[in-house]
Recover the amino acids of this structure.
């Protein structure tokens, strides 16, 4: 498949990294020549320097025979025009655009993106993706990462093991025997900054970051077994009243459970906009790093703090100060993944990586055919893939133990005949089954081949 990616920033880089390793022909376009040199020197991709919306630049990038164009520059307008040019001049069949400004995404303007107007097939909103991720974190305070699969029947849950965890130094095989009725599978472990897929004889240790696929009905019991206390948060302070903070506050206001929310925003104009847009939420104008404004927000008496400003250091320090004041749950938005190592020293419970959420959302629309959902784990270290078994798949009719799964992969859950099934060696994979597979990034192409996934849209 021939793909043109417009924008060589963090999102464009990760997309190019993912797609170039999967036998796709990828060309990246960016106005910054230094970014193009960096990406072409590091990845097996082509590069063109210039404005992505200019027809001659797209022509040089190979748009005339491209199967897909992904417009992920920093400018919404450039992304829109790029898709228009790709459609009108080069007849590119599939066009994906990243659009940040919420005014473009109002439901009353949805007709704008029809083929006779602005022909964009898929619109990705990073702010909304990040806000949804934040809401998921708030619903699962005991986890540092979470994502739903199989229409909400299964959760991917990431938890950090403490010294108090009762199942430390116990092999995963023994855990399966001890809790045979628990529909949960340990699919990934990060230890000493290294992510790997565990084997049945592997043990878990304090400090491990463990990823599990868990049946929705067993989440509370799983937390208990792994020594985590889940709790509900009925009072939340949000640092940052921009698009993300405002969207989260609005969703919390609209939720079934009554949550008291306070928003702290440094910019007066933005604070006024947030105050006008919210009904029950108190908006405070001030710096979220100042002790006085945090005290005014009663930070020591809230269940959670969510720091989502556009400055990573502000988010980290605000969360750290809140934890020092006694806030049980602190979640920080971190654009630079290298800063995530500061989470533990600062006592921060979870972080949201905008790049990972955006890349996951775009991959969900690229991985076509039998792939129904994709979630990028960590710094693009692994993917969790939800895929349906097709009749022509090489794994159809095979027992789980007889399938040549890659070393860096594991099946976490199976949806079979309307029921959730715990994967076992004698489980037979049949047409129509839906599997949730955790795979390290280098093994993703092999997983797609096992499902005979096609990303051909035509």
């Amino acid at each position: 498949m021939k793909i043109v990616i417009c924008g060589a920033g963090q999102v464009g880089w990760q997309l190019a990294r993912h797609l170039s390793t999967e036998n796709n022909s990828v060309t990246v376009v960016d106005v910054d020549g230094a970014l193009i040199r960096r990406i072409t020197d590091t990845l097996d991709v082509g590069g063109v320097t210039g404005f992505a919306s200019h027809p001659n630049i797209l022509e040089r990038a190979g748009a005339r025979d491209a199967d897909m164009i992904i417009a992920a520059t920093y400018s919404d307008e450039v992304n829109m025009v790029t898709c228009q040019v790709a459609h009108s001049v080069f007849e590119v069949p599939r066009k994906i655009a990243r659009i940040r400004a919420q005014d473009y995404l109002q439901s009353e303007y949805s007709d704008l993106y029809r083929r006779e107007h602005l022909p964009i097939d898929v619109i990705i909103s990073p702010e909304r993706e990040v806000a949804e991720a934040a809401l998921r974190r708030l619903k699962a305070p005991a986890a540092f990462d979470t994502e739903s699969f199989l229409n909400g029947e299964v959760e991917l849950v990431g938890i950090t093991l403490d010294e108090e965890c009762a199942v430390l130094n116990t092999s995963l095989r023994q855990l399966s025997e001890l809790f045979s009725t628990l529909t949960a599978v340990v699919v990934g472990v990060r230890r000493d900054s290294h992510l790997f897929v565990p084997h049945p004889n592997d043990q878990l240790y304090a400090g491990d970051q463990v990823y599990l696929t868990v049946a929705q009905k067993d989440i509370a019991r799983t937390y208990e077994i792994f020594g985590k206390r889940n709790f509900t948060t009925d009072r939340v302070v949000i640092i940052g009243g921009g698009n993300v903070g405002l969207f989260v506050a609005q969703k919390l206001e609209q939720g079934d459970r009554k949550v008291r929310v306070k928003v702290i925003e440094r910019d007066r104009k933005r604070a006024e906009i947030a105050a006008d847009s919210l009904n029950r939420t108190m908006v405070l104008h001030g710096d979220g790093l100042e002790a006085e404004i945090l005290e005014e927000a009663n930070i020591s008496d809230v269940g959670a703090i969510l720091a989502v400003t556009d400055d990573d250091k502000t988010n980290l320090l605000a969360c750290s100060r809140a934890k020092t004041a006694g806030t049980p749950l602190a979640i920080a938005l971190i654009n630079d993944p290298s800063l995530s190592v500061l989470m533990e020293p600062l006592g921060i419970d979870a972080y949201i990586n905008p790049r990972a959420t955006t890349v996951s959302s775009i991959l969900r629309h690229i991985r076509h055919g039998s792939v129904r959902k994709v979630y990028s784990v960590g710094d693009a270290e692994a993917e969790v893939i939800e895929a349906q078994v097709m009749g022509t798949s090489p794994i159809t009719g095979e027992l789980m133990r007889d399938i040549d799964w890659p070393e860096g992969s594991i099946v976490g859950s199976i949806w079979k005949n309307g029921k959730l099934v715990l994967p076992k060696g004698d489980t037979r994979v049949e047409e129509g089954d839906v599997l949730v597979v955790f795979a390290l990034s280098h093994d993703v192409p092999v997983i797609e081949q096992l499902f005979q996934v096609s990303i051909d849209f035509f």
User: Anything to note?
Assistant: Residues 126-139 form the longest helix (14 residues). Residues 453-458 have pLDDT under 50 and may be disordered. The chain has three domains: 2-124, 235-352, 362-450. DSSP finds 14 helices and 22 strands in the chain.
